[in-house]
């Protein structure tokens, strides 16, 4: 990458140095391209790619016709530099929070570089909430780009209830998040109407752009409606369940997450009667069914829930009768995804380092630069080493290159004064930040002040980028994340407030590993959304260690007046993964294509995709408990295939539970 990066930056510096006069194409070629040992056509293509690279990182390269001379290329400085946004302290907090909502995704990298440029003069603020909103959604970036331009695309899609894959031609309008899943809404050109697509059901690895001509007589009717409202779509996906009450008998020695938000009202011969309030009957019934014969719903007082539990157990039992009829194909080991930073992102980061150092008088400590750009010292040294050769073309402008020592501390950069202030946000940077700010307002427990700051900064950014990226600056957002948690919102609000104010919280917690419910005092550091669940990273005073707690296993969360000093660690760089060891139980499960996106949250070791879109996956569990919970949450659609003794155990457990008459009451 070094030679192309060097040439791209040289093109930038040539145009910046020329100012409003600009440079002709022949001048540019004499400095940068004529010496290349390629054809003229290849040189033209390279020049086009280099201009596109600058444009993609937010540098507006313009072509202007001249009446009496050769046309010129130039950079309009009025459009190059980011205007002074006059950020308030609350807006800076919102800005850092917006970036933290795209952890471990390519979007995070481009936002990180933009954030460093925008807040070079302000202190960094650790985010309280982090989210891996786009992890595993490789198509998200493609669809966002298409929706930004409302450009038609095609992709292969598998509809629920059908085995065949169909080709869909769609004009995307927006992508949205609901129930921790991503959807794309747009105009289906073949069905001539609005349609909603779940991203996990798109079979294509990438989308294919289509020429505008395919729109035909639908050119106007297929445009995103002027009154487009994403909340209307979310309401179609959301079923608002009224609160329900259930009475459930649990054996006295059974620890379950059901207990953490229940009231014990009776004890009898080794059993305890719990009173439970719930909103999601399927989720509640699945949790009860997972306890097999250690739980019984009081049929007289909760007949509908009792029948639902019985049905779930029967479906799981019947799906595990005898040997599995399925043949397991060859499984491929799952390679853990890594963030791969592209050439343009690296160029943007390195130019960002120049801009930030310049804004601090040409000198800045190495540790500060590493912190602002989210890189380690080795990466910084690599960046600075490459930048020694940047600047004006050396053969024609001797001494016009950057002057720096890649190992010095503090970092000093000379001959780079042309980039003395932050340049405009690129479309991905602006879109990522604006989308993140939209998600900030949905964080449970966020204060009115923070909501107002996120909204005001979103307006400022839209106005700032409108001149260079009108599709991004448009008032109708394209990306709509959502961090609400339903039943867990109340707990999340307490933890969010505690993390912001550095207050100790007392929680009751069900530990899946120990099977026990305990009371703990924790110091909440960060809330994190990952794999369809919400977690809180905290210092646990009971164990004197940094721990991760799943929010739906927290029964109560109470603020105390006790304060703490936050642990200064790179929390957001840590991933959420199950704690299993070599003694873990390993199984191969089969998931119907409607439920295959569930498997990712269990961190499969190996997978294979069948011809019908279903998935075989090798999973590891500490015990039967989480495995049974997986099966009862998706009865008949996720089943154990191997080994046979585990299938038999599942059948035995569910068969014994279904043998109990639904009408039985302790």
Automatic annotation (TrEMBL):
Membrane-spanning intervals of the chain: none
Matching InterPro entries: CBASS_pafABC_assoc_protein, PafC_HTH, WYL_dom
Domain (PafC HTH): residue spans on this chain: 347-462
Domain of life: Bacteria
Record-linked Pfam families: HTH_PafC (PF19187), WYL (PF13280)
WYL domain mapped to chain residues: 139-204, 491-558
PANTHER family registered for this protein in UniProt: PROTEIN PAFC, PTHR34580
Name of the molecule in the record: Transcriptional regulator
Organism expressing this protein natively: Enteractinococcus coprophilus
